[in-house]
Design brief:
With about 500 residues, the protein is an alpha/beta fold. The protein is built from 13 helices and 16 strands.
Length: about 500
């Protein structure tokens, strides 16, 4: 979910399989034959639940999977939680999910939206406070229509590099994608699911990962064809959103989110009642008059500047005086602080509905992001309690929720060249797989991955438009923290899977 802006090749996947006892963790006493490592920890528990109005008996497998190199040496351990409906149907859909970062574990989608249990934190953009945090049944989980495998990439969750392998060998756009694709191929083999409908999805950088993993799965003759890709809070074109001098698109893609935020906090003069209609106006202005004005630079005529400044003030909720001093260019960091400066509050980055109280009201940017510190404690506590008790996964290691990955390699294909836009990967996948569809979920109040940035990236040349569907939510980056939007998101995704 969080974002800031060695090649494992055709390594062999191996899942050691010691004898399993239902509802008990596997004994990791037997060493892996290719090393001195103990066997992977595997815990299998069995459950029943009501999902989508249907009773489902399912098996939860919380496990480590060792990824092996060509010489048979385990190089990494991937932690995953797989929920499979009892009955061993080889043609039942399966969905692979992860979060983003890079450096985030999958607990957010797991305990927030799609897992059979979820953590119940405030739905109205209030801080989650102190424990205990309720862990409740999640009848909106997708287990009635698909099996689900939550994956934690190397350096997140319980996943880690093994032996002499350094974790940085998995930390990069392509390196990471290859390891996840390797895990997925192995899981399909172990579970006899090669001919099942397959869905892949992620949140935030997880959408970038989804595009890169889709390339690894479908980009060779040894295809793993996908039925659908689920993009939640999408970031594909990092160049368009790069906050560097001279890049006018960074201002353009954020402007409609500023408008939605100003609307939410009642900073819009003559505020319309319909948010979607107001956002549509802002979107048209951003890609039209505003973009045209910015590209003229210092050649912008004064009359045009005056007209654009007035409209920008209306949409953004900022004063014309401030916008004039900022030369019509306001990046999100400044906006978080300026919008409600007169109220002594700042707004959140991940979800601008959240309000922060900074040390003082004079600063340039907020002290911290209230939409992150307002939820992180609840999710961390809930997942640890759930995994170590209900799932019975026994380990002394700490679960790394976010931030465990450093020095990310942004080059593609290991050639040292930067390729910040992975949207063409999705275009190629759509062109070459007529059965593939893409689901895009965007929150109106998300500055980490603004909705107009997703629309821009996916509307470029070479990307078929007829199999991409957009859905919008009245919350931010993690729209599922709001009860109404969690229900809408799971309903929308359920329909997407059913429509295969």
């Amino acid at each position: 979910m969080w974002m800031k802006p060695i090649f494992i090749g055709f390594a062999v996947f191996c899942l050691s399989a010691p004898a399993l006892a239902a509802d008990k963790p596997a004994e990791p006493a037997m060493a892996d034959k290719a090393s001195d490592l103990p066997a992977p920890i595997i815990s299998v528990t069995r459950h029943t639940g009501q999902f989508g109005g249907t009773s489902v008996a399912y098996t939860a497998t919380a496990s480590e999977t060792y990824l092996k190199g060509d010489d048979g040496t385990p190089r990494a351990s991937i932690y995953s939680t797989a929920y499979t409906k009892d009955g061993n149907d080889p043609r039942r859909p399966v969905t692979f999910l992860f979060n983003g970062g890079p450096g985030s574990a999958s607990l957010w989608l797991h305990m927030g939206a799609f897992g059979p249990k979820r953590v119940a934190i405030p739905s109205d953009a209030r801080d989650d406070g102190a424990p205990p945090y309720p862990i409740v049944d999640n009848p909106e989980s997708l287990l009635d229509v698909t099996d689900i495998v939550f994956i934690d990439p190397v350096g997140t969750g319980f996943s880690r590099a093994l032996g002499k392998t350094e974790a940085k060998e998995f930390w990069g756009v392509t390196k990471d994608a290859k390891s996840i694709a390797q895990f997925i191929r192995g899981w399909l083999s172990e579970n006899n699911r090669w001919n099942a409908p397959k869905f892949l999805g992620g949140e935030s950088y997880g959408t970038t990962r989804s595009a890169a993993v889709a390339k690894e799965l479908e980009g060779s003759y040894n295809d793993v064809a996908l039925n659908g890709i689920i993009l939640i809070s999408t970031i594909l074109d990092f160049g368009a959103q790069a906050e560097v001098p001279g890049n006018e698109m960074a201002y353009v893609v954020n402007m409609p989110t500023m408008a939605a935020t100003a609307w939410y906090h009642n900073k819009v003069a003559n505020r319309p009642t319909d948010l979607a209609a107001f956002v549509a106006e802002a979107r048209a202005f951003a890609g039209g008059e505003y973009l045209a004005a910015l590209t003229k630079g210092q050649a912008l005529p004064e009359a045009e500047r005056t007209a654009v400044r007035a409209k920008l003030a209306r949409f953004s909720g900022l004063s014309e005086t401030y916008l004039d001093r900022a030369d019509l260019r306001v990046l999100p960091g400044r906006f978080y602080k300026e919008l409600l400066r007169d109220r002594g509050r700042s707004v959140g980055r991940l979800d601008s509905r959240y309000l922060g109280i900074d040390l003082d009201a004079a600063g340039e940017e907020p002290d911290n992001d209230p939409s992150f510190y307002g939820i992180d404690a609840g999710y961390t506590a809930a997942f640890n309690a759930y995994a170590r008790t209900t799932l019975n996964f026994k380990t002394e290691r700490q679960y790394v929720t976010i931030g465990g990955v450093r020095d990310w390699d942004w080059s593609m294909e290991g050639d040292g060249k930067f390729y910040f836009n992975v949207a063409p990967y999705l275009g190629k996948a759509l062109r070459e797989n007529s059965g593939l569809r893409i689901f895009v979920a965007q929150g109106y109040y998300d500055f980490a991955t603004p909705f107009y940035g997703a629309e821009y990236a996916l509307s470029r040349s070479g990307i078929p438009q007829d199999r991409i569907q957009f859905h919008y939510y009245d919350a931010g980056h993690m729209m599922y923290v709001r009860d109404e939007d969690r229900a809408k998101l799971t309903r929308d995704v359920r329909n997407f899977i059913r429509a295969r």
